[in-house]
Specification:
15 helices, mainly alpha, 439 residues, 0% strand
């Protein structure tokens, strides 16, 4: 590589990831759409399971991003043997965790809904969560294989498996929740079984593509020793998982902080959270792009291209988020009214908080790229510590101060969110550019 990557090359890597994340977001809404007719208790029960699974999947993100970074790093050094060991390590660790979660899923599900203290929610949710946890092995194995493809600069192929999961989830939900084509209806738990079968189908497609494609098949050699690679894999995966998981956990604690403000504030938060999930997608795509590209530039002969390339990815990420965020900002009143047509006050407050989210995402667009770059530089421990400080010592206390103590309500809570985004962006920018300019 003699020059920094073009915008077209960056976009070619980022856009399939953004599309895949969009499909995942849509897939997460499918179960709720099918379960909604079963009433409020069913929706609440499913929401508890989905929140718990979202936290788990964010902690397990280390499998996907960790594999991506380590494979890209191995290939940058022309070390195919290490890349193979990385994949084997990931699949081995995924198997161990899968066995544990499969064995303890009934117990975990029982205690989660026992603590909920509501018989109707226990009835709907206990088996739903248990089956959801049983689908975890397919997700973990898919994360490792997706990381392999991404590390080899193929971000398009994993998108096919994601589309299969989404389509099959719709089919199986119709079949098992509503009793389509004469199949006996399983009700709410049918949605969980639908997710499990869809995850199995998506994993089957992904492993078939991995085995058949000449790009990836050489890295599936389980007879090659790989145990020496496990410590490095675990160290990186744990740091990545701690960062993504603790970020989502901070957002869950934020819900507890604003809960005393009443149902209207929670409704505003739910509407704003949907917009946040949408606005966040482009930045995720550019994080993955940075994690794929940067390992190639850590070689001394290419080091001079590191800052220009990362800066270019930052510019592209910022530009895309500026456009998408600008549209959401401009039409915030329309979007909030769509989600809350009956309560005009909730819609008006949601429009204000949505605008704050759009402003915060401009800083997140830069932060995510730098997070991908620093992860590729194996500086993940700093990312974890910085995330804990900004999330738990700045965002949450400031949210409590502004929303509760100073009486700014949910708007004050999202002012703290913007401060969180600014802090993360500035901290990682200082860390990355200072490190790269040191002799």
């Amino acid at each position: 590589m003699q020059q920094s990557m073009s915008y077209r090359q960056i976009g070619k890597l980022a856009l399939p990831v953004i599309a895949a994340q969009s499909v995942v977001l849509i897939n997460g809404m499918i179960d709720l759409a099918f379960i909604a007719p079963y009433g409020t208790e069913a929706i609440a029960a499913v929401s508890i399971a989905n929140a718990l699974c979202a936290v788990l999947f964010n902690f397990w993100e280390g499998f996907r991003l960790g594999t991506t970074v380590l494979v890209a790093d191995a290939l940058a050094g022309n070390n195919a043997q290490k890349a193979t060991a990385v994949v084997s390590s990931g699949l081995f660790l995924a198997a161990i965790i899968s066995v544990l979660f499969t064995a303890f899923a009934p117990l975990v599900s029982h205690w989660v809904y026992l603590l909920a203290g509501n018989e109707a929610m226990q009835y709907h949710g206990t088996e739903y969560l248990m089956v959801w946890l049983w689908s975890l092995p397919f997700t973990l194995f898919s994360y490792v294989l997706t990381g392999l493809f991404r590390g080899l600069k193929d971000t398009t192929t994993p998108l096919y498996a994601t589309l299969v999961i989404c389509l099959f989830n719709v089919f199986f939900d119709y079949l098992l929740v509503y009793g389509g084509f004469g199949v006996p209806s399983l009700g709410v738990k049918g949605a969980a079984w639908g997710t499990l079968f869809a995850s199995l189908a998506g994993f089957s497609i992904l492993i078939l593509l991995t085995v058949k494609k000449p790009l990836t098949s050489p890295y599936l050699h389980f007879k090659q020793p790989f145990f020496k690679q496990i410590p490095e894999y675990v160290a990186l995966a744990v740091d990545v998982g701690l960062n993504t998981g603790s970020t989502l956990l901070a957002l869950l604690i934020f819900v507890c902080i604003v809960k005393p403000l009443g149902p209207a504030a929670l409704a505003v938060h739910q509407i704003t959270l949907q917009v946040f999930n949408l606005a966040y997608l482009p930045a995720v795509g550019f994080l993955i792009t940075a994690s794929i590209i940067v390992p190639q530039l850590l070689n001394p002969s290419h080091k001079r291209l590191l800052i220009p390339t990362v800066s270019r990815i930052c510019q592209m990420s910022f530009g895309v988020v500026l456009i998408t965020g600008g549209l959401l900002f401009a039409f915030s009143s329309t979007v909030s009214s769509f989600f809350s047509p009956a309560d005009k006050q909730v819609a008006a407050q949601a429009a204000q908080t949505m605008r704050l989210v759009c402003a915060g995402q401009l800083f997140s667009a830069i932060y995510m790229v730098l997070r991908g770059a620093l992860t590729s530089c194996k500086d993940t421990r700093f990312i974890v510590y910085e995330g804990w400080i900004s999330g738990y010592l700045i965002f949450l206390p400031l949210a409590y101060l502004l929303a509760i103590k100073l009486g700014y309500g949910i708007y004050g809570g999202y002012m703290a969110f913007v401060a969180w985004c600014v802090t993360d962006c500035c901290a990682l920018a200082f860390r990355f550019f200072r490190q790269q300019r040191l002799p």
